[in-house]
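Q: Got one fold?
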Amino acid sequence: MSPLTVTKDRAETEEALIRANLPLAHYGVAEVAGRVPKHVSRDDLESAAMYGLAQAARAFDPDKGIDFDKYAMIRIRGALLDELRSRDWASRGVRAAARQVEAAKERLTARLGRTPSEAETAAELGCSIDKVQQIRHDVHRGTVLNYESFLADGEVADILPAPEPTPLEQMMSREKRAFLLDAVVALPDRLRHVVVGYFFEERPMQEIAGELGVTESRVSQMRGEALRLMHAGITANLDPALLPPEPRPAGRVAARKATYYRAVAAGSQVSERLAATPRPLADRLAAA
C-alpha cells in the first residue's frame, strides 16, 4: 500500500471518528456553558470543543486499549479549559463597571456609615438594580472559576477525569479532597464564614459583608487571605517541602500558621480521608 493510500485512509478514519462523536463536543460545551460569564461566546466554546475532538481523532491509538469516547472527552475538556484560561474572565466593560460599582459603594459607606443596599448603589450610579446584580453575577462567575483553578493547582490534567484511575490515584484524590474540607473547618471563624458563605453557599458578598459588619472590599480581602492560608495548610500536610520559608520563624505569624497547619492535620483520621464518601462539610462544621 502506497504512503498516499495510507494517508488517505487515515484521514477518512479521523473524519469518521469526528462525525460519529460530534455529540461529545456538544456535551462538553454544555458542561461548561452555564458556569462562565455571559459575554463568553458559545461559538468560541464550540470551536474549541471541535478542535479538541479533531485532535483526539488525529492522535487516537486503538491499540492502547482506551475507548475513543473517554479519550476524546479528555481532549475536548482540555481544549475548552485552554480556551477559557486564555481569556480575561471579565471583559473590559464588565471590569470597568465593577470598579464603578465598588467606588459607588465606598462613597455610600463613607456617607451612610454602613454598607449600602443594592438599591442605594443603583441609585448612586443612576442605573437599575438588575444592572448592578448582573455585574456582580458576571464577576462572581469569573471568581468561582479562578477558585476552581486554584484548587486544581492550575493544571488541566488535575481537573480532568482519568479514563481508568488507579487505586493509588483514587486514594490521593480522596486525601486531597479531605484536606481541603479540613482546611476550611480549621480557618479562623470570620475567614471560615467568608469561605463557606461565598464558595459553598454561593451567597452575595454584600450579604456576607452585612453579617460581618465590614465592607465588601474587606470581604474580598478576607477571601484572599483565607485561600492563601488554605493553600499553605494543604501544602504543609501533603508536601511540606514546597512551603516557602517563614521570614521570621520565631514570630507570632509563623506560630499562628503552624497552629493552623496542625489543626488541618488533626481534622480527620487517615481512614476517613480515604473513604469513598466524605463526611459532609456541614457535619464537620457542626463537630468543630
About this structure: The CA atoms of residues 37 and 138 lie 5 Å apart. The chain is about 75% helix and 0% strand. Residues 1-6, 143-163 have pLDDT under 50 and may be disordered. The first helix runs from residue 3 to 20.
